[in-house]
Amino acid sequence: MFSTQAVFWVQLCMSPLQLIYAAVRTLIDVICSQVHGASKLRSTRKGNSATDKLMQKKLTQPATTPSSVNYHFTRQCNYKCGFCFHTAKTSFVLPIEEAKRGLKLLKQSGMEKINFSGGEPFIHKSGEFLGKLVQYCKEDLQLPSVSIVSNGSMVREKWFKKYGEYLDILAISCDSFDEDTNQTIGRAQGTKSHLDNLSKVREWCREYKVAFKINSVINTFNVEEDMRDRITELNPVRWKVFQCLLIDGENAGEDSLREAERFVISEEQFQEFLERHSSISCLVPESNQKMRDSYLILDEYMRFLDCRQGRKDPSKSILDVGVQEAIQFSGFDEKMFLKRGGKYVWSKADMRLEW
């Protein structure tokens, strides 16, 4: 540590140019320290180190248009499906004004369709948070399509009365038409009937003019099931049929909250299920490869998730760096998106449904 006198004599011996240089270096050090401190406050919304290394290279690529985005704004859920690949690892939900800001950024970048998912999207504030976002996207942002994926257990008719007019599509997850199978999978809450909820929601969709859709994950416990009669009876506009997918850190691996390995089926088993149901015209198959490459997924921090390596590698948040910078790390394959039928008639105004 120099004494005050020593510092004085050193400064006296320095030229004016050296003094200016020293002052500038000190100012730079102070600014860098402040920037570093501010960046730490945003650490929960950052991606991994690979994001920074690839940033400049990625930004030279052509811009991707986020025409259809899946926003998993909450990880909380009242079900415990054994193959869930977006588990309750946090309880974080953005303040609604921040969520709206992010949605507006997406709209300005070309988003036409938003799909709200979870977790269970109706669980946060009993569906009010979700309802306000749905209304904002349709009324303020004027998006052609607003949709939701839900397990159906927490949907209430009063929600339809208040927000149904702003919703284009409601997809209900249903993996089996056998209650015991649903219990085995974990798509249940206590002794409540998942299938009774499914039927009620189907009727509300018809009454409040919301297009009804069904999502099914095909796994070891339902792969032999014949669902043709029930799907025909429910008459969804689309029946999404997914192959059970492993995601490291979510439903597989040391840090996961699920052990989905026992649910995994082979490509051959998946194809046999598809062939058995080939007479269902609304069936839309989703193999593992299609799912990994062709979805734009935002997590609860509004970070794009790249699933190509069998895990979820996050970008930085669009709230911090903007959509075009973050989307470069999404792993999104637009050709695969179009090939799997990701672009379809997704506005209920254009579906010409007979309610």
Largest sheet: 8 strands, parallel
Question: What is the averaged pLDDT score?
Answer: 86
Which strands sit side by side, in order, in the main sheet? 7-6-5-4-3-2-1-8
CATH superfamily of the largest domain: Aldolase class I
**Unreliable stretches covering 5 or more consecutive residues:** 1-17, 19-24, 26-41
Describe the structure.
By secondary structure, this protein is of the alpha/beta class. It is 40% helix and 14% strand. It has two domains: 4-41; 51-346, Aldolase class I (TIM Barrel, Alpha-Beta Barrel), CATH 3.20.20.70. The protein has an eight-stranded parallel β-sheet with strand order 7-6-5-4-3-2-1-8. Helix 4 packs parallel to helix 5 (128-140). It is globular and about 45 Å long.
Give the SSE layout.
Elements: H1 4-13, H2 16-41, H3 49-59, E1 68-72, H4 96-108, E2 113-117, H5 128-140, E3 145-150, H6 157-163, E4 169-173, H7 179-185, H8 194-207, E5 211-218, H9 228-234, E6 238-243, H10 267-276, E7 283-286, H11 288-293, E8 297-298, E9 303-306, E10 313-317, H12 318-321, H13 323-327, H14 334-339, H15 348-351
Helix pairs in contact: 4-5
Signal peptide: 1-22
GO biological process, one term: innate immune response
Domain Radical SAM core: 63-283
Keywords:
about 350 residues, alpha/beta, TIM Barrel, 2 domains, 8-stranded parallel beta sheet, two-stranded antiparallel sheet, 15 helices, about 40% helix, globular, disordered N terminus
